């Protein structure tokens, strides 16, 4: 939503600049391109790619506690037992939440949840989350 507010002023600026950059001489029109337009376009492309890199998905939550030491110990245990998955320690007052993985589908997250339930018998849950996507992986999955 926010990138729409950035794009509209940039688009209006483009039209005003192009309209002023026209010079009539000998019946021909000469259009002078302002370098700032190219900079605005590059910035908009960057904003759009950031929005695509962090799509909604799922993670597996193994612990929610108000004790930081307990959360850190759980994260360490996860990192040692499952080094192929990214592990996250999030703080949402007053709780520390330990989550693992970046999954596009609930089914993928459920597979990991089933493996983790032996390590964390208190309860392991699949939760919706904004995930981190590696650009290389994304390209492979799309093809």
UniProtKB/TrEMBL annotation:
Residues 52-129 form the SPOR domain. InterPro entries: SPOR-like_dom, SPOR-like_sf. It holds the Pfam family SPOR. Keywords: Signal. Residues 1-21 form the signal peptide. SUPFAM superfamilies: Sporulation related repeat. The keyword Nucleotide-binding does not apply. One of its GO terms (molecular function) is peptidoglycan binding. This is Sporulation protein. It comes from Chitinophaga caeni.
